[in-house]
Design a protein that fits this description.
The complex is a heterodimer of chains A (about 425) and B (about 170). By secondary structure, chain A is mostly beta strands. Chain A has four helices and 30 strands. Chain A has two domains: about 1-145, 3-Layer(aba) Sandwich (Rossmann fold), CATH 3.40.50.10070; about 155-415, Neuraminidase. In chain A, helix 2 crosses helix 4 (about 130-145). The radius of gyration of chain A is 23 Å and the shape is globular. Chain B has about 170 residues and is of the alpha+beta class. In chain B, helix 2 (about 80-95) crosses helix 3. Chain B is globular. The chains are: A mainly beta (about 425), B alpha+beta (about 170).
Chain lengths: ~425, ~170
């Protein structure tokens, strides 16, 4: 078991988009079904299959290559699976227990060790079946890699579609695989800078309704929203504090001097953290709540600084290159993602905070808005395909890069949700 | 092209009408194709011959240019645009009940919220220039759209030059 984990966690087992290294072969056997209808409400095995394949770390084999299709652990023949060449097998079933009540169960086996690694049963409805399948994939992924899966998380992003001369801006939320997309806000004026609350129930964003910028906080499920900042001048770049009670925001005032403020969401009271006449913007909290990292061009070009959440003198963090902006910290607090000018191209880079080593992760010329997945292992960002923005994910070591399926239009500013709470 | 043709035919029509209606045929008004005013409306001669004509404003151009462009990574109003800003300052000084909204924009390169800052810096540069020339702060508001509302879609230097701008919008 330990040896297996070690092998899977090794970087040589992962692939990049060109498929240089070998992903691990696994088998997700079609799930059994007991219920009134001829088919189960959702092909659970297919969802798990796609999740593991898209992670880049696994190569699920085709159904045609399976010598047996057991739906329960007792029927798994390890010799057969060893012969086929897979290292792990997933079997499972869905059973109907009421009009809209089901039980989903699965078991994961280590073929060489001839033993079960995890088995789990959970209730589901037609509406929650997909989420349950993602949860199963998360448990499988974590057992095999030692890294928490993020298949059950969501992504928020902004799209712009042209309608003649005008444009329609939409704030959307989908599952992390692009399925299940919902529009939660639409406007003929720009929408910017979505940010998740730590409980993933709310999104803060900037809207330019009536030709001025305002910051809103909207509950994703209900669509209810309230305006939290609409001062003269710029109201921008919101990000939630780790306890969810405050936002860090950028305010410009009538004279247009952009500075970093904290804003108490309940009382609407603001506190100014920077006073420099340069552009100070794009604030984000450190996961421990102690610091706020932000972009400032006080030294000429934009670089990342940090200031104590209680105020004080900012300290410069980035020094490599002429342009480092839009900082985002990994949830484990060890790395800083930025938009970095890499020989004239704007690319996503990650800096290790301990040794200040900077690694450029993306390959476009206009990449932007990096956002860490809650497991700190993957980032999502926007890149260009022709004139439109599309979303890509990349592992924090830069080895696995994937284009996200997305709808039409110009997609930008993806933000990865925190882990869901069950 | 077809507009030019239309103007030419219009002038000819005035000319022919003049031939029929009046024994003293005036020379047509001087026409300047680059000026592009509507020749057909410059009639109005007195009994005794030509009065002083006057060019009409081109309605398609507005009275004053409404867009100020900026160099890469700069929020300085270029020398060739300072005259335009001054003419707006005079207009706003004459009509103190009128307000303007200065909309700052940036090209698409780099980070979006930082570009909001760059657009604001440009709007503020124009605002300062108007205020120095006597326009009241209460007549001016600023907004920055950063890279969110490009004038030109595309990623060439020419597109970027079109997008680094401040638009002057009269609001009443």
């Amino acid at each position: 078991m330990l040896a297996l984990l070690g092998a899977y966690a090794n970087a040589e087992l992962v692939i990049d988009v060109q498929g240089v290294a070998q992903p691990t072969p696994v088998a997700i056997v079609p799930f059994g079904w007991e219920g009134n209808a001829p088919d189960m409400p959702l092909d659970v095995a297919e969802v798990i299959n796609n999740d593991l394949r898209r992670s880049g770390r696994f190569a699920p084999i085709s159904e045609d290559d399976m010598l047996q299709k057991p739906t329960s652990g007792e029927d798994v023949d390890f010799d057969d699976w060893g012969y086929v060449g897979v290292e792990a097998v997933v079997v499972g079933s869905v059973a109907q227990t009421g009009e809209n009540a089901y039980t989903l169960q699965f078991q994961l086996f280590d073929v060489f060790g001839r033993r079960q690694l995890v088995g789990y049963r959970m209730p589901a409805s037609r509406g929650t079946m997909r989420a349950a399948a993602h949860r199963a994939a998360d448990m499988i992924y974590e057992k095999l890699t030692g890294i928490k899966g993020v298949f059950g998380t969501k992504v928020a992003y902004v799209t712009a579609t042209r309608q003649g001369e005008a444009r329609l801006y939409s704030l959307k939320v989908s599952d992390q695989d692009g399925e299940n997309e919902h529009t939660i806000m639409e406007s003929s004026d720009p929408i910017m800078s979505p940010a998740w609350s730590p409980d993933s129930r709310q999104l803060a964003y900037v809207s330019f309704e009536e030709n001025k910028s305002s910051i809103f906080v909207q509950t994703v499920r209900t669509g209810n929203r309230f305006k939290v900042s609409s001062k003269p001048g710029i109201n921008g770049a919101p990000a939630f504090s780790p306890d969810g009670r405050q936002l860090v925001v950028t305010l410009g005032g009538v004279d247009g001097n952009l500075d970093i403020y904290t804003l108490d969401i309940t009382s609407r009271q603001t506190r100014r953290l920077t006073t420099h006449r340069a552009i100070d913007t794009e604030g984000t909290w450190s996961p421990d709540g102690r610091h706020i990292y932000f972009t400032s061009d006080r030294a000429g070009g934009p670089q990342v600084y940090r200031v104590s959440a209680n105020g004080g003198t900012p300290e410069r963090i980035t020094f490599e290159g002429s342009y480092n902006a839009r900082p985002r910290l990994s949830p484990d607090g060890t790395r800083l993602a930025v938009v970095h000018n890499d020989r004239g191209n704007f690319r996503i880079a990650v800096m290790n905070l301990a040794d200040k080593n900077l690694l450029v992760l993306s390959t476009g010329r206009q990449d932007e808005s990096p956002s860490f997945a809650p497991n700190s292992d993957i980032l999502i960002y926007a890149t260009r395909q022709g004139r439109d923005g599309v979303l890509e994910t990349v592992s924090a070591d830069g080895l696995i890069r994937q284009k996200m399926a997305s709808g039409r239009g110009d997609v930008r500013e993806p933000v990865w949700s925190p882990f869901p709470r069950f | 092209m077809s507009y030019t043709k239309f103007v030419a035919i219009g002038l000819l029509a005035v000319f022919l009408a003049g031939c029929q209606g009046s024994p003293s045929v005036p020379d047509p008004e001087p026409t300047d194709t680059t000026y592009g005013d509507s020749g057909a409306s410059t009639g109005g001669m007195g009994e005794g011959g030509m009065g002083d004509g006057e060019y009409l404003d081109d309605p398609s151009a507005g009275e004053l240019g409404m867009v100020i462009y900026f160099d890469f990574d700069s929020s300085e109003v270029r020398p060739q645009d300072q005259e335009l800003v001054s003419r707006h300052a005079v207009q706003l000084g004459d009509k103190t009940h009128v307000s303007v909204r200065l909309e700052g924009h940036a090209d698409e390169r780099g980070s979006r919220e930082y570009n909001i800052g760059l657009g604001e810096r440009r709007a503020q540069a124009v605002r300062q220039m108007l205020m120095i020339q006597g326009v009241s702060a209460s007549q001016i508001s600023t907004v920055s759209f950063g890279e969110e509302r490009p004038a030109s879609f595309g990623s060439s230097e020419a597109d970027y030059a079109q997008n680094r701008r401040v638009e002057i919008k009269y609001t009443n």
